[in-house]
Write a structure and sequence with these properties.
291 residues, alpha/beta, Rossmann fold, 2 domains, six-stranded mixed beta sheet, four-stranded antiparallel beta sheet, binds adenosine-5'-triphosphate, binds magnesium ion
Length: 291
């Protein structure tokens, strides 16, 4: 029995050429207009207007609690804007009926922070779940073939299929989460903290898988992360959010939006401090609070 983790498959399972994010045919897949999100009057996001081009990989960075996950969930209609709109492929997600939304959600893949696998299902059934749920007429032979293909693509050994989530490592669980996100061949994949809790080697395996997925499929990706190595390695665009409560009215909540190579040279000191991991203003605030 093969118990070793496999190298990531280099066999493309789909031949479509991913569009260049900056090419002349670049078109927005996602358009966010004047988005705001409040929870019980507590403003988390406001005045966010941005587009994400088809094929782009966008890293969303920023300190804990600044609203990265809220932003990501809003893009895939897991949260409803308090004001403003989110268009996916030209369609306002919040105007869809529940049935239309369920249909549109098939075009999204989610990779959650903790992999969010079903503990009571083995790995095969976890990865098969979206197919069985969304394509009930698909025969078991095809389900088996698709599950195997995606497990191979994320470099997992065959014998992992029969195991339960608790029987595999955190890094393997994250790979299973990615395989599950890919089975419906989504156009948009959102990753929430894909490398959190992993050792540096396994983090880099996940980074490579994100890049590999981008090479295999013409997918648009939004990667929420604290990990600057991930942001620099996988993204062609980085957006840095800042907590709304720490800004004056009218100030932009997005302090940086550009290629990762420009992060170090950002005009805003708070961006440079964040990417260098310097406490900066936070240390001064803490000393004031403790005085
Ligand atoms: N469903 C909700 N109801 C009420 N408040 C919420 C909800 N979801 C998020 N929040 C609040 O919104 C703020 C931003 O949360 P979010 O999870 O987006 O932060 P984050 O930037 O992803 O942080 P982290 O890096 O720690 O994951 C937090 O103060 C959080 O408590
Ligand atoms: Mg988060």
């Amino acid at each position: 029995m093969n118990t070793e983790e496999q190298p990531i498959s280099e066999e493309p399972s789909q031949v479509d050429e991913a569009p260049s994010p900056d090419g002349p045919n670049a078109a927005p897949l996602i358009e966010v207009n004047n988005l705001s999100i409040d929870f019980d009057g507590n403003c988390i996001l406001s005045g966010i207007t941005r587009s994400i081009t088809r094929g782009q990989t966008v890293a969303v960075i920023g300190e804990s609690g600044c609203g990265k996950t809220v932003f990501m969930k809003t893009l895939v209609a897991l949260l409803t804007p308090t004001t403003g709109t989110v268009l996916f492929d030209g369609v306002n997600l919040n105007r869809l009926t529940p049935a239309q939304l369920a249909h549109t959600r098939r075009r999204f893949g989610f990779v959650f922070q903790n992999a969010a696998l079903f503990d009571s299902m083995n790995i095969f059934d976890n990865v098969a779940f979206p197919i069985r749920q969304n394509e009930p007429t698909t025969g078991e032979d095809e389900v088996r073939q698709r599950v195997r293909k995606h497990l191979v693509e994320v470099g997992l050994p065959e014998d992992v299929a029969g195991k339960f989530p608790a029987e595999i490592s955190g890094g393997m669980q994250k790979r299973v989460g990615l395989a599950r996100a890919l089975v419906l061949q989504p156009e948009l994949i959102v990753y929430d903290e894909p490398t959190t809790g992993l050792d540096p080697i396994m983090s880099d395996v996940i980074n490579e898988l994100i890049l590999h997925t981008r090479r295999l499929y013409p997918v648009t990706s939004v990667v929420v992360t604290h990990d600057m190595h991930t942001a620099r390695k996988v993204a062609d665009r980085v957006m840095m959010f800042y907590p709304r409560r720490m800004l004056d009215k009218g100030q932009s909540q997005i302090l940086f939006d550009g290629p990762p190579s420009q992060l170090e040279h950002a005009e805003d000191r708070r961006v440079r401090q964040f990417v260098r991991g310097e406490a900066g203003d936070r240390l001064r605030e803490m000393s004031r609070a403790m005085a």
